[in-house]
Design brief:
Layout (H helix, E strand, L loop, with lengths): L1 H15 L7 H9 L4 E2 L5 H12 L8 H22 L9 H27 L5 H25 L6 H25 L2 E2 L5 H17 L7 E2 L4 E2 H25 L16 H18 L5 H4 L1 H25 L10 H13 L5 H31 L9 H9 L1
Parallel strand pairs: 1-2
Antiparallel strand pairs: 3-4
Helix pairs in contact: 3-5, 4-5, 4-6, 5-6, 5-8, 6-7, 6-8, 6-12, 7-9, 7-10, 7-12, 10-12, 10-13, 12-14, 13-14
Length: 395
């Protein structure tokens, strides 16, 4: 325990020496932030009973963010193993792997749903919890979508898998774009809860019959995996369109965000992300999308996660959103290597871009969490004793 505390102290000290991300005004606005949402999904009333029952099993010394990160790590680990065993969504794998991935996703959904309830039980609710929750969701969206495509063996149609994943990223970003503009996160009747359970259903079907998705629908001779892909495309386009309409209505001209900037500002980062991803996929001479589909979509999915995290911070701190992001550097480097035909292999560049993206995302998230922990005088993964918190606030 003493060694762990020493490691934690050294890690925190190292993060504190990184350049600051939030200014004093942003921290002050974050302290005033209140979570606001609207809408109840179709299955939420049923799932709430399960979540209320589940949270009672966790002792009060377990921090809410610890639940979230435990679920996320479990889900990501299972998803990565599935990607490896399916050769990047191109082959079948053992049935137990599909079941394990579905179980990991259900485990993450359960812990992610009860972190707020645990925060209220432990009286440790702060805006850091909301930020941490949504940040984890942005990362999980990448792995949920790519892993589900692996269960469908959708990698045999790389461009269909590309657009299924890309439009899922875009839909999540647009949901937080309209939240940045309106100040309220809106849920539809069919939303994240239903989508997650649908993905778990895909894993369970693959567990029973891994080859099921390659069968064709009678009379129309279209594979079941293609049908599922089309449904994914349709649902994400519908979700994105609704959120963009909400963000831009009653018109682009003159509409401002709470920070005083144009409602169109978040669109530019999204456009840069889409362009960089399309250029890398379309102009690749080594066909990196076709040969390394899952790796490509994870690599560029982390770019989406980073810009989405920054958008969430901008919303909660009521601050301006900057179009440029350092995580674009890796993607730009890949494009330069392709367009100018340097001698470096595109596959090597893609791995280099992935490593850089992981570092840049973790650096940003760790620094923001550390700054907010200091600002709120709380721990990220531990519950601070209530008496200690009260004493510190009284001085």
């Amino acid at each position: 325990m003493e060694k762990f505390n020493q490691f934690e102290a050294k890690t925190t000290d190292a993060i504190r020496h990184l350049p600051d991300i939030l200014n004093a005004e942003q921290k002050e606005n974050l302290k005033k932030h209140k979570y606001d949402n609207e809408g109840i999904t179709l299955l939420d009333p049923c799932m709430q009973k399960y979540w209320n029952w589940l949270v009672e099993f966790f002792p009060l010394w377990i921090a809410p963010n610890l639940l979230t990160i435990t679920g996320l790590v479990t889900h990501i680990s299972a998803s990565i193993l599935l990607m490896i065993l399916t050769n990047g969504a191109k082959e079948e794998c053992t049935r137990w792997m599909y079941f394990l991935t579905g179980l990991g996703l259900f485990f993450y959904q359960s812990l992610d749903a009860i972190d707020g309830k645990q925060a209220r039980r432990t009286k440790s609710a702060t805006p850091l919890g909301e930020l941490f929750d949504h940040g984890c969701d942005s990362v999980s969206t990448v792995f949920i979508t790519v892993a589900c495509c692996c269960a469908l063996q959708l990698g045999v149609y790389p461009w269909l898998m590309f657009w299924c994943c890309m439009l899922s990223y875009i839909a999540f970003y647009c949901a937080h774009w309209q939240t940045y503009v309106s100040g309220k996160l809106r849920f539809g009747k069919l939303d994240c809860t239903e989508a997650t359970l649908a993905f778990i259903g895909v894993y369970m079907i693959s567990t029973i019959s891994p080859s099921f998705w390659a069968n064709k629908v009678p009379f129309i001779s279209v594979e079941y995996r293609v049908i599922v892909g089309i449904l994914m495309l349709g649902s994400t386009v519908w979700s994105s369109a609704n959120n963009i309409y909400t963000a831009l209505s009653p018109g682009i001209s003159g509409r401002k965000t709470p920070s005083g900037t144009s409602v169109m500002v978040p669109a530019w980062s999204l456009i840069v992300f889409i362009v960089l991803t399309l250029v890398a996929a379309y102009y690749s001479k080594a066909h990196i999308l076709e040969l390394h589909t899952a790796l490509f979509l994870i690599c560029y999915g982390l770019v989406f996660s980073k810009i989405t995290n920054r958008l969430i911070v901008a919303h909660m701190s009521k601050s301006a959103f900057n179009t440029w992001d350092s995580i674009f550097i890796g993607a730009i480097t890949v494009c330069i290597n392709q367009l100018f035909g340097f001698s470096f292999g595109e596959h090597i560049f893609l791995w280099g871009c992935l490593i850089f993206n992981v570092y840049d995302l973790l650096r940003y998230d760790a620094k923001v969490c550390q700054e907010l922990c200091d600002a709120f005088d709380v721990y990220c993964f531990r519950v601070k004793p209530l008496s200690t918190t009260r004493n510190s606030q009284s001085h």
